[in-house]
């Protein structure tokens, strides 16, 4: 089930990234392309085979996982700016790009690096599974490392959450409201993923469900926004042709 969820998410991210290539070549919506590209890279680095191949090149010390964390940070930052502007959420944009957002980004980055350096990271292992299994000390650090890595994405999506709720209650087209609903669900999934350190081992699969559900909701939500804009642009042309 977990493998299916991983590869399905990767396939979806690859498709939406490739769909954006023609627009990038025309010089349109380049930021959207890079958001999808970063998400695709993040999912790729979360799957065993690609992760192991990349980490071996980096020395086999799980530096690929550290790279993964900062790829996610970069992707979620640009996603937050894109969505804040798209939904006219000036309050969220100010929060993300202002002193508070910068401070949280710096704190999350320092926490991720600090906990990573405290672990015995020898031996490539996707998801740091082998590191977790070494002993209780490393197991606890892996959990806190994961929580620190989800702190900044949770902040970004939480900042956007009020704008999603406003959109859901608005009279905007159904596609726009559907995208807001998906993005809101993604926010909830990311926030729930912060509970990973206290999720019992018997429910460990829920960690993967939260993580990949969040990515799926964010990618689909962003794609629906773009689709809604494309349809809105075509509608006046059709009406003009019928006149």
Describe what you observe in this structure.
It is a single chain. The chain has 243 residues and is mainly α. Helices cover 81% and strands 0% of the residues. The chain is built from 11 helices and no strands. The chain has helices at 2-19, 21-25, 30-44, 48-57, 63-86, 90-97, 99-118, 129-134, 136-168, 174-193, 205-242. Helix 5 (63-86) runs antiparallel to helix 7 (99-118), helix 5 (63-86) packs parallel to helix 9 and helix 7 packs antiparallel against helix 9. The chain is globular and about 55 Å long. The N and C termini lie far apart (53 Å). The model is unreliable at 238-243 (pLDDT under 50).
Features:
mainly alpha, globular, 81% helix, 243 residues, disordered C terminus
Task: List low-pLDDT spans.
Answer: 238-243
- Strand % is under 5%
Structural category: mainly alpha
* Total of helices: 11
Radius of gyration: 19 Å
**Beta strands, count:** 0
Q: What can be said about this structure in brief?
A:
By secondary structure, this protein is mainly alpha-helical. The protein is 81% helix and 0% strand. It has 11 helices and no strands.
Which helices and strands occur, and which strands form pairs?
Layout: H1 2-19, H2 21-25, H3 30-44, H4 48-57, H5 63-86, H6 90-97, H7 99-118, H8 129-134, H9 136-168, H10 174-193, H11 205-242
């Amino acid at each position: 089930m977990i493998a299916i969820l991983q590869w399905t998410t990767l396939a979806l991210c690859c498709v939406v990234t490739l769909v954006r290539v023609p627009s990038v070549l025309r010089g349109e919506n380049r930021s959207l392309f890079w958001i999808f590209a970063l998400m695709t890279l993040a999912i790729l680095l979360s799957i065993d085979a690609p992760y192991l191949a990349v980490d071996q090149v980096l020395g086999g010390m799980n530096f690929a996982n550290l790279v993964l964390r900062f790829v996610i940070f970069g992707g979620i930052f640009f996603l937050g700016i894109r969505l804040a502007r798209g939904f006219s959420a000036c309050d969220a944009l100010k929060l993300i790009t202002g002193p508070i957002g910068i401070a949280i980004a710096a704190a999350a980055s320092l926490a991720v690096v600090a906990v990573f350096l405290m672990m015995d990271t020898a031996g490539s292992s996707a998801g740091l599974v082998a590191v977790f299994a070494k002993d209780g000390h490393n197991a606890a650090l892996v959990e806190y490392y994961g929580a620190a890595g989800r702190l900044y994405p949770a902040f970004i999506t939480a900042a956007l959450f009020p704008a999603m709720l406003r959109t859901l209650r608005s009279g905007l087209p159904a596609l726009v409201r559907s995208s807001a609903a998906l993005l809101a669900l993604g926010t909830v999934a990311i926030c729930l993923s912060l509970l990973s350190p206290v999720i019992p081992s018997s429910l460990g699969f829920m960690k993967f469900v939260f993580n990949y559900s969040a990515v799926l909701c964010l990618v689909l939500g962003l794609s629906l926004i773009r689709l809604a804009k494309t349809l809105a642009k075509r509608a006046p042309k059709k009406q003009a042709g019928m006149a």
